[in-house]
Amino acid sequence: GYKEEYCALLRRKINMKYTFWGNSGTGKETAVALAARGARVIIACRDHEKAARAVREIKLRSRSFNVFHMELDLASLHSVREFCKKFLQQEKSLHILVNNAGMPGVLDWTNDGFSMCFGVNHLGHFLLTNLLLPRLKECAPSRVITLTCSCYKYQKLDFQDLNYNLLPFFTYCRSKLANIYFSQELARITEGKGVTSYAVHPGFVQSRWTCHYSFLFRILMQVVMWMFSVPCEIGAQTVVYCAVSNEAAKHSGGYFADCQPAALRPFARDAGVAKKLWEASERLVKLA
């Protein structure tokens, strides 16, 4: 269990007006937690039916009617741009942006020709955050929370082949390392502007990432997750902590696990690599 003072903090009501999240797994549990604390929640999802079901469940569990969904496919940069255009027209406030999508390593490609894992986990979030950054600054203090994973430590970035798609697990590790560098560089460029950034490892949770694989693999991994993983509700607590905690605000650019700052491998704290990845990502998504 978490420390008593953390649990008390996580029950605190918040006045943030808008946040983003997802339609299943850790994302849905975070949406429930934030909606129950008074936040207006907008989940972004590419599947309208799944999103509608998730909204109904989140409303029921959080006892809040202030939950909505909008269409977004992070595998399409065009969809990201359309989503941001629509959001900025309809919504006047944005205080919390949670970058939650976690595509596992699969041998597939996005509409824009990027490996699915790198394109969704990093580039989609990168473009989304940048297009919404002016609104985040307007609504400061605001926060950007990007989910990553401790498996980042097994790979380093190769700027000659950021799209690496040969070994799915290593592709996933690189995308999670990119999430960490992204969070750090975002904290650097928004320093003093009221926007803080956090990379969060939710732990190994019982999520639905296996839905992209074969039936037999899903059965095997369900057994493994049942034995060694934690429920999604537990995994969401560190995300909620970074969304509402005053203490977390002191650690912009930090890496969090178990509701507290955690240490990173030295190569994952390289500011030069973080800046280089940011500039490369700007070129890849054609961000002026």
UniProtKB/TrEMBL annotation:
Pfam families: adh_short. The keyword Oxidoreductase applies. InterPro entries: NAD(P)-bd_dom_sf, SDR_fam. Keywords: Oxidoreductase. GO terms for molecular function: oxidoreductase activity. PANTHER family: PHOSPHATIDYLINOSITOL-GLYCAN BIOSYNTHESIS CLASS F PROTEIN-RELATED, RETINOL DEHYDROGENASE 14. Belongs to the short-chain dehydrogenases/reductases (SDR) family. This is Si:dkey-174n20.1. It comes from Fundulus heteroclitus.
